[in-house]
Design goal:
Layout lengths: L8 E4 L6 H28 L9 H27 L6 E3 H34 L4 H4 L2 H27 L8 E2 L6 H7 L5 H32 L5 H30 L5 H25 L2 H22 L1
Parallel strand pairs: 1-3
Antiparallel strand pairs: 1-2
Length: about 300
Amino acid sequence: MQNINNVTEFILFGLIQNEEMQKICFLIFSLFYLVIVLGNLLIIVTIPFSFRLKSPMYFFLRYLSFVDICYSSVTAPQMIADFLIEKKTISFIGCIAQLFGVHFFGCTEIFILTVIAYDRYIAICKPLHYTTIMTKRVCGQMVAASWLGGFMHSLVQTLATTQRPFCGPNEIDHYFCDVHPLIRLACTDTYIVGIIVVANSGMIALGSFVILVVSYIVILTSLRSHSSEGRRKALSTCASHITVVILFFGPCTFTYIHPSGDFSEDKAVAVFYTVIAPMLNPLIYTLRNEEMKNAMRKLWSRKITVRDKTKM
């Protein structure tokens, strides 16, 4: 790599170029990132302290919140800092590390969302076998498989990119290092790499999305035989997950399933799955979930009671 690479750092164009808008975006995205961290941390802390939130769905939701924090932290802090910097640079190693992190946590989130859909399918379509199928061991294995799958996917993407020679230019028309903008800068033919990227990233996103759609069609069909109360509760839970899936998979699939084109368009779409979706996930899962809201109220009241006792 040292013999064929003349590039030691990359220059990022950032999300926008207008200086006045950059200052406004700095405030807006700083608030967004704060909501992402605090909102997902609240879910991570609440679930272990509630006896009502011991089902596999909340086990997966806790990991989803953790992945959301990690995923947004790979890109958001640098994007926010770059709003105040004229020359937005990132080292070659830092760029590759960011590329690896984006695909590692992004793909892991895709697999965890798919696992949650499977959990909902078993809970609604096979309720009598739910406890025997979704054991703690099985849930742990599913989460481990999601992390492993994300790691393998990211490793393929990173190796496919770093094996290309970079001899200049070094300007990336994006606000973070991603595969499409990077391989465009390679001083060699990238047709095969482009196919690998679409086959790997695009097909994982599209394939998982199709599985999710089919699973929820089966779930919604089976709800006709449930009572009105059971149907209402199941629809409430599924609606939250479907909303999260659409917010994350729609933009993600659009970005990685089509060939490299207008990156200004890709940047706008990427904001949805790197910032907006991780920010809305905790809001969606808490505001539409009575069990989560009740658990948070009890945890908050418990802390107030303990604090009052210590003062006395």
